[in-house]
Write a structure and sequence with these properties.
Largest sheet of chain A: none
Structural class of chain B: mainly alpha
Order of helices and strands of chain A: HHH
Shape of chain A: elongated
Oligomer: heterodimer
Largest sheet of chain B: none
Helix content of chain B: over 70%
Helix content of chain A: over 70%
Number of helices of chain B: 7
Radius of gyration of chain A: 18 Å
Strand content of chain B: under 5%
Radius of gyration of chain B: 21 Å
Order of helices and strands of chain B: HHHHHHH
Number of strands of chain A: 0
């Protein structure tokens, strides 16, 4: 079954904004470090989606894909390093509360 | 068009579930589901290479990393969990309402968009573009991957010293 693709910029923009608000709210409404990382991931999803939508609407899909590949590589490195920092912080302070990050030194 | 819009709605719902659910494991599963749905969206739009990367790296590798983090951290006591849920619920409950309001408000916008993109010509195959026109991106990606590997090495070395 072939899916008919919409050509409306505002449809893609609406879902981009919804994902963006969702990710931002997820980051701001929690004190758990892992949830903040999950919110950051949702923000990344919104940016990835909008890059692909921009490439699709402008007919420059190859360029959009090249940028998305770069975004995904950066995303995975950020997640792995931040996950390591969160685990190190948890072992040191026995907490995932973002308020305790003030106790970090050095 | 209706199927594609439905797919986008389910993608936002999966991301919303990842934001609102109570346990970290469910949040990670919601994020993996959102990644998988995004890869389907990308595939529908013709971005096959990005879709494959999104599915394998974001829905696969990142989910494994997040599940590992969730499993290596101690679950809270029941009292802590109840107190945390209550305070979190107070902060998170307006989110679905805000999303619905934003979606409805934006669905009424139909202003014409006339964006002129001054992009380099030769936008054909993504592999050709990536290897022949975006070498600086690739160089940056290699540097970032090396920096990430170095960061993980430093973190584990610190951990070994702490354990001694």
């Amino acid at each position: 079954m072939a899916i008919e693709m919409p050509q409306s910029f505002w449809l893609y923009f609406t879902f981009f904004v919804l994902l963006l608000v969702d990710g931002l709210w997820c980051m701001l409404a929690t004190r758990n470090l892992v949830r903040i990382l999950i919110g950051l991931e949702i923000l990344m999803k919104s940016v990835t989606f909008f890059l692909i939508a921009a490439g699709y609407l402008s007919g420059r899909m190859a360029l959009a894909q090249a940028l998305v590949v770069t975004v995904i590589v950066i995303e995975v490195v950020v997640v792995v390093v931040v996950a390591g920092i969160i685990l190190g912080f948890y072992r040191k302070h026995d907490s995932l509360d973002v308020g305790n990050t003030r106790r970090m030194k050095g | 068009m209706i199927w594609f819009t439905l797919l986008l709605v389910v993608l936002v719902l999966a991301a919303l579930w990842a934001s609102m659910t109570t346990t970290l494991l469910r949040a990670t599963l919601g994020l993996a589901l959102a990644s998988a749905l995004l890869s389907v969206v990308m595939f529908s739009m013709g971005a096959t290479l990005a879709a494959v990367l999104e599915l394998s790296v974001c829905a696969g590798l990142i989910s494994v990393v997040l599940v590992s983090v969730a499993s290596l951290t101690r679950p809270r006591s029941i009292q802590e969990e109840i107190a945390s849920r209550r305070s979190r619920l107070r902060r998170i409950w307006p989110l679905p309402l805000v999303l619905i309001a934003a979606g409805v408000a934006l669905s009424f916008v139909h202003a014409p968009v006339d964006i002129v993109l001054h992009l380099p010509k030769g936008d054909g195959d993504v592999r050709t573009l990536l290897w022949s026109m975006r070498q600086l991106d690739l160089f940056g990606q290699i540097l970032i991957l090396l920096a990430g590997a170095l960061g993980v090495l430093v973190l584990f070395r610190k951990e070994a010293k702490d354990g001694d």
